[in-house]
Amino acid sequence: MFRENGLHMKIPSTHLIHGVKTAAASVLAYAITGFFGFEFGYWAVISAVIVMQVYVADSVKMCFYRFSGTLIGAFLGVAVLFLFPENSLWVGVQLFLTIALCSFLTHYNTRYRMAAITVVIVIMTARDAPQLLLVGVSRVLEIGIGILCAFVVSVAVLPRRKVDVLKQNLSDQARSCAEKYRKIVRAFLEGQKTMDADFLETLPDRIWQNHEILENIRRHEALIYHRQFGEDLAVRVAIMNRTLWHLRSMVRTLSETEQKGFDIIMKPELEALAGKCGELLVKLAENRVSAPDRTGLEQALQKSDARLLELREQGVTHRFDLKKLLQVFAFYNSMHHFAEDLLDAAGRIGTNA
């Protein structure tokens, strides 16, 4: 905490740690290049700053991106230095050809943007060097040292993992969805009231971001923390998608109401089903599902199905006109399938465990 204009300001711990780690990686790169006597050790320091990201997954991604681009750029830079004469005019030609080529190739892979930077470094620092090949190797080593320092510090010193971010997001989203689900069911039971159009407005973007984070974890972070990543995480991301789909379906069903709705006789069964669904959704998102949780939802679903069948056999549903009948059964169908999806996800996580 610090005080500014009489107000207390909170320093974000994540970014404070990131600043300290970036500085540590830069100093480490400077010390190593100084110890080995590299002439342009500052490229190692610059590389450490570029590569170091807030989260481990992003740092690993930048390591691959930076190092592969460096190798390509060093090769191109040394190649044009060998092929063209040494004078100022031809330096311009070398820069034009290599930068144009690398910039064009970014259409296929973004690593070529880093290759373009390395090309400039090699060409501009090797103009008067007697051994061109040594210049290229030196630039690769300097940049490689900076990348390695950033990688080590990112992984070993207070690592911030995307998997932890995803887990927290899933927990927050599940709790929000469970609450919204109960409100939707309550609106249905209180005479099929319509819901506001923006009731689910913030959920889609937040839930779809889970896929991007999960892919980042799979491609980068799981290479290091493979024991902390299992298929259950993918199942939990998928169930949030299914949850959003069901919530949208139920809201859409309620929005079709054009007249005063009916009281639903099986209100206790549906309230119990909604409660069990919300509880299991949260526990799925937080990966703490137990056998009693699955059993509780299974029993609530069976009671709801049995009660609906009983009411149909008694002819109670005859009071509904066709449109209202379709609406009621469509809404219950969404609740039923939502419960089945939750049970399926719980079973898959149990199998993986």
Q: Shape from CA axes?
A: elongated
Based on CA atoms alone, the radius of gyration comes out at 30 Å
Q: At the third CATH level, what is the topology name of the largest domain?
A: Methane Monooxygenase Hydroxylase, Chain G, domain 1
CATH class of the largest domain: Mainly Alpha
What is the total domain count?
2
Largest sheet: 2 strands, antiparallel
Report helical residue fraction: over 70%
Mean pLDDT: 86
Notes on the structure:
By secondary structure, this protein is an all-alpha fold. It folds into 2 domains: 2-156; 162-352, Methane Monooxygenase Hydroxylase, Chain G, domain 1. It has helices spanning 13-36, 42-51, 56-83, 88-105, 111-125, 132-156, 162-189, 203-219, 231-255, 267-285, 291-313, 322-352, and strands at 2-4, 7-9. The protein has a two-stranded antiparallel sheet with strand order 1-2. Helix 1 (13-36) runs antiparallel to helix 2 (42-51), helix 2 crosses helix 6 (132-156) and helix 10 runs parallel beside helix 12 (322-352). The chain is elongated, with a radius of gyration of 30 Å. The relative contact order is 0.10.
Question: Would you summarize the structure shown here?
Answer:
By secondary structure, the chain is mainly alpha-helical. The chain is 75% helix and 2% strand. Helix 7 runs antiparallel to helix 8 and helix 7 (162-189) runs parallel beside helix 9 (231-255).
Offer a few descriptive terms.
353 residues; mainly alpha; Methane Monooxygenase Hydroxylase, Chain G, domain 1; 75% helix; 2% strand
